[in-house]
TrEMBL record:
Subcellular location per the Swiss-Prot or TrEMBL entry: Cytoplasm
Record gene name: treZ
Keywords, sorted A to Z: Carbohydrate metabolism, Cytoplasm, Glycosidase, Hydrolase
PANTHER family in the cross-refs: 1,4-ALPHA-GLUCAN-BRANCHING ENZYME (PTHR43651), MALTO-OLIGOSYLTREHALOSE TREHALOHYDROLASE (PTHR43651:SF11)
Annotated NCBIfam families: trehalose_TreZ
Protein name per Swiss-Prot or TrEMBL: Malto-oligosyltrehalose trehalohydrolase
Superkingdom in the source lineage: Bacteria
């Protein structure tokens, strides 16, 4: 078997495989690379020693059976027999479901999660979006401090379990999206700096030195991240990748890393003859990210749209702290702006940032499905001090309004696991760091962060306490009892309507027309012949929809279609979807 590793600063590289060792030789064709042949099979443990240093895992390790600090293991991807042929499932028309493997079930494994995929099919989901799977210290964590970006966290079941999960999802007609983190790696088990200039002090991010995308040595670093992305799509038959915090990818080169990545993914899609896509998380509000490369953009197919979330959240809750400040002044106006223009900050002044922010989308060129809309995500729930969901403070009626807007908006909708039945369980920040000093630093940092926002330190859950993770696991007995069952039925009905009504997946952002009353707390919008209205106030509202005859497709509370006067009488804390004929 061929072994190879990039270690440009090493004077000697030794391969340790099984109980044997072998000195690698410099690759005459590739500067900084070392290579050599050795006996190995699927599961063989191995690692590399640089000069007189310790044996370290392979930066391109496909498996870390003993955790991030242990030796790597060979994975023979070709040995897996896929059960079905999969033609792929593209992003347009999709309904995504964000899922954390470690808390979707109490078992916290990919196999256990696969057994619950039938629930998503019944719900009407088209793609399940898995939070990061790369190895991280301990058993439980969010996954955003992973290392070994080509491997699968062993406590989740490792590479074989991910293949079984994807196979089962595809068997049920579900696409699979994987959240990947290219902007930083975890501090524990991260040996990349020993091998080469994977990081640079030229730029800095909230996590320290930036990933090296433009300094000397960056060609190989970029290839490392592109290669990792392609491996997920090729070796595991993943359908799309969610790219974490791309605004932290600091790159001054003429061809931005995201453009290079999107080019490579499109080429792989053509080679495999199935659709593949990338979804960026970005707070830049820069349309170039989701503009095709042929039109001067970076070619990413879609992005999370936090502006829609923030506008909806402030309208529902009245919260105005932090980044909600800009949206809370006139939340219904902010919601209307995002529904028609995608971004709220489109070059406007942001008081939270103390400057102007963003750039307007060209609605004639940017399809609505390129923006993901949601009322909750792992970030927006888990980064609250107590990990409280909307269901912790809002009535079932207001939760129904949130679902109505999310699932009928001109964006690709995404749900956060458990949202569909108003889960009563929180989703808190939890870690399982094996380094006592790092564990204590995370614990203190979390409490200090929320103490600055008025929380008592004793009210902030200890991330290292196993009970924090246990509290965050979904309770699968809830969907069978009220009020959860009613909320779940509403989500199913709305998603079914989205699949049935072509106007609800129309990509034309400019076709959405919105009316609202900030004081009366109602908002209505039109998409083709579909009319959607929500009343977030406690009192009934009279909403003028126009004289055309309409029939009710779905209503949270009993409601009559508008009469000849065109006025809809909508009960408080309720939503309705109508079809004009």
């Amino acid at each position: 078997m061929q072994f190879e590793v990039w270690a440009p600063q090493a004077g000697r590289v030794t391969l340790h495989h099984g109980d044997a060792t072998r000195a690698l030789e410099r690759d005459p064709e590739r500067e900084g690379w070392w290579q050599g042949e050795a006996e190995a099979a699927d599961g063989t443990r191995y690692g590399y020693a640089l000069d007189d240093g310790p044996v370290l895992p392979d930066p391109r390790s496909r498996r870390q059976p003993d955790g991030p600090d242990g030796r790597s293991a060979v994975v023979e991807h070709g040995a897996h027999s896929w059960r079905i042929a999969w033609a792929g499932r593209p992003l347009p028309g999709a309904v995504l479901y964000e899922l954390h493997v470690g808390t979707y079930t109490s078992e916290g494994t990919l196999d256990a999660a696969a057994e619950r995929l039938g629930h998503l099919v019944e719900l009407g989901i088209t793609h399940v979006e898995l939070m990061p799977l790369c190895p991280f210290p301990g058993r439980h964590g969010w996954g955003y401090e992973g290392v070994s970006l080509w491997a699968v966290h062993e406590p989740y079941g490792g590479p074989a379990a991910l293949k079984r999960f994807v196979d089962r999802a595809h068997e049920l007609g579900l696409g699979v999206v994987l959240d990947v983190v290219h902007n930083h790696l975890g501090p524990s088990g991260n040996y990349l700096p020993v091998f080469g200039p994977y990081f640079t002090e030229t730029h800095h991010t909230p996590w320290g030195a930036a990933v090296n995308l433009d300094a000397p040595g960056s060609d190989e670093v970029r290839d490392y991240f592109v290669g990792s992305a392609l491996a997920w799509l090729r070796d595991y038959r993943i359908d799309g990748l969610r790219l974490d915090a791309v605004h932290a990818l600091r790159d001054t080169r003429a061809c931005h890393f995201l453009e290079e990545l999107s080019t490579a993914v499109d080429a792989l899609a053509a080679e495999l003859d199935r659709p593949l896509f990338l979804i960026a998380e970005s707070d830049l509000n820069d349309p170039r990210i989701i503009t095709p490369r042929g039109e001067g953009g970076l070619g990413i197919q879609a992005q999370w749209n936090d502006d829609f979330h923030h506008a909806l959240h402030t309208a529902l809750t009245g919260e105005s702290q932090g980044y909600y400040e800009d949206f809370a002044r006139s939340p219904f106006a902010a919601l209307a702006k995002t529904l028609t223009g995608g971004y709220f900050h489109d070059g406007s002044y942001s008081a939270f940032r103390g400057r102007h922010h963003g750039r307007a989308l060209n609605r004639a060129r940017v399809a609505g499905h390129r923006l993901l809309g949601y009322s909750q995500t792992h970030d927006q729930v888990g980064n609250r001090a107590q990990g409280d969901r909307l269901a912790a403070t809002l009535s079932p009626g207001l939760l129904a309004c949130a679902a109505t807007l999310t699932l009928t908006a001109p964006f690709t909708p995404m749900l956060f696991m458990g949202e569909e039945w108003a889960a009563g369980t929180p989703w808190q920040f939890f870690t399982d760091h094996t380094d006592p000093e790092l564990a204590e630093a995370v614990r203190r940092g979390r409490r200090r962060e929320f103490a600055a926002h008025g929380w008592a330190e004793e009210d902030v859950p200890d991330p290292q306490d196993p009970a924090t993770r246990d509290r965050s696991c979904l309770d699968w007995s809830e969907p069978d009892r009220e009020p959860h069952a009613r909320v779940l039925a509403w989500y199913r009905q709305l998603i079914a309507l989205r699949h049935e009504q072509p106007d609800l997946t129309d990509p034309d952002l400019a076709d959405t027309k919105v009316a609202y009353d900030e004081g009366q707390r109602w908002l209505a919008f039109r998409r083709g012949d579909v009319r959607v209205a929500v009343n977030l106030g406690k009192e009934p509202a009279e909403i003028p929809l126009g004289p055309r005859h309409a029939r009710v497709l779905a209503a949270w509370e009993p409601v009559q279609a508008p009469g000849t006067d065109g006025v809809l009488h909508l009960p408080g804390e309720s939503g309705v979807v109508l079809l004009q004929e």
